[in-house]
Structure formats: C-alpha cells, structure tokens
Amino acid sequence: MVILIVLIVLLALCFDFTNGFHDTSNAIATSVSTRALSPRVAVFMAGGMNLIGALTFTGVAKTIGGSIADPLTIQHGMLVVLAAIIAAIVWNLFTWMMGIPSSSSHALIGGLSGAVVGAVGFHAIHYKGFISIIEALVISPIVALLLGYIIMWIFRLLFGSFSPHRVNRPFRSLQIASAAVQAFMHGTNDAQKTMGIITFALIAGGFQSTMNIPFWVKLLCAVAMGAGTATGGWRIIKTVGSKIIKIEPINGFASDLTSSAIIFTFTLLKLPVSSTHVISSAVMGTGAAKRFNQVHWGVAGRIVIAWVITIPISGILAVLLVRLFLLF
C-alpha cells in the first residue's frame, strides 16, 4: 500500500511537470511572440509565478478530489488514481509532441472519471459534481472569446487613431506584468487539480479521512509545475503565439487580461477551468475584434477538436488501464 501511494505521488508529480511545460506555455506565448520577453526570461518568470500561485489556493483541489466520486466508497481507489494519472500523462505527451494546445485539465478529469467507471461502474460517478465541472470547462472558453472580443473592441476605440509604433511600445511593457499575472493565475487553478487527485488517493488508501490538502502535497505539486514551466513548451508557444493570429502587443495584453480575469474568477468559485481553452479562446476573441479574417480559423478548429476529444479519449484509456490493473 505504501509503495503504491509513493508511485501515485511520483506519477502525479510527473503529470504536474508535463502540465507545467504543456499548459503554462500558453501563459507566456503572447509575450514571447511579441518579444516583450525573451523565451528564457519568460519561462523562468512564469515558473516562479506559477509556483507562488499554486501555493495560494486549495478550493479547486477539493472540488477535483471530492466532486467526481467519493474516495471513501471507491473500491480499488488507488488503482483508479494510478490509471487516471497515466492516461492523462500519455495524452499530454501526445498532444505536446503534436504541438496541439489541448487541456491537461480535461485529460485529468476524463482519466479520473473513466477510471472510476472502469473499476466500479457509472453509478459511482457524482453526476451533479461532474456536470458542474464540465459546465465550467465549457462555459469558460466561451466567456473568454466574448470578453476578449469586447476588451479588444474597447482598446480599438481608445487607441485606434494612434500609430502602431506609438501603441505597441507601452503595451509591450504592460505585457511583462500581464504574463506574470497570467502565470500566477494558472498556478492558482491548474496545480490544484493534481493536489486534489493525490488527496483522493490518500483518502482511498486510508492515509487520511478528509479533503484537507496536506502542505507537503501543495509544496510538491507547486514545485513540480514550476519546474515544468521553467523547462518550456516551445511547440505550444509557437501554436498559441503565432498560428492562431499574428499577435501584436495590444491584443497580446488584451488576451492576457481576459484570460487572467476568467481563470481567477473560476478559482474563487472553486471550479476547475482549462487554462489552454481560456487563453486560446481569448486570443481568438481579440483577433476577431481586430480583424475577423486574420484569425486562422483552420488552426482554431483543430484546437477545438482536440478540446472535444480529450475527455473521452483519456477516459477510455483510463478504463482500459484500470481493467488491466485489476487483472493483476
């Protein structure tokens, strides 16, 4: 039992590391693409801010750990968590290699749900909690798209008469601050998901009885995600920073402002969101407000397809894994 929980913690930290270079790269993509920050400075700054953000809140962790299923009543709960984490890691690595900004949040939630179904059955899912999580994941990018459009439209009204050179200089400086805030907000939401799943395993294994997140879990998850961020996710940065639209400092700042506000709002609501979805949608929204036909909607469509298929694919993979584990 102790060996299994150690293995789960190690794999969860590996997931957090992949989450760091996979998802947090979104947070700095706009500032790197506009050259507000050099790639090296951007990833280290994001890593530090991500670590601080991860240590600040725990509400989302408790939602992940207790809203999808009850760890006290799940048979083979530790094997469920093991299968969920492996499924999420596999999907993260696959989409990272393909340069697709898919959602680590979706992968983890899909993996956990699928593993619960594979081990116990559909009746073990808390559908009210599960649906509230899915609603947050679906609604947040839509709001990001609309809010990004509105903020960029306001910026165009305020600064449309100025020359691009005059506008870009101050907004490039503002992007340094917005990238830092963005990375902090990512830490407040995304790192908590791994904290929640480790705590789920601790309860399922009888190591604790409540959803209170131990400090050592918060610290290890924060460090793992910060280290992953500092490693950098250059493929994802390239997709978000240049392949959706040609980003300039003004719409880069608008995108950062939009996504930071939305991620933090959902963190306060103790609901998980996909930073990938939110940031990519904000970029699309600001691009559409500037010039609709400049958005590379084909690339955006491929990103949306990845969003849609992540939960079912990671869920199916987790079902197969947990069934395999139970054979032994």
TrEMBL record:
Keywords: Membrane, Transmembrane, Transmembrane helix, Transport. The chain crosses the membrane at residues 44-65, 77-94, 106-125, 137-159, 304-326. Its main location: membrane. It is found in: Membrane. It comes from the Bacteria. It is a multi-pass membrane protein. The keyword Membrane applies. This is Anion permease.
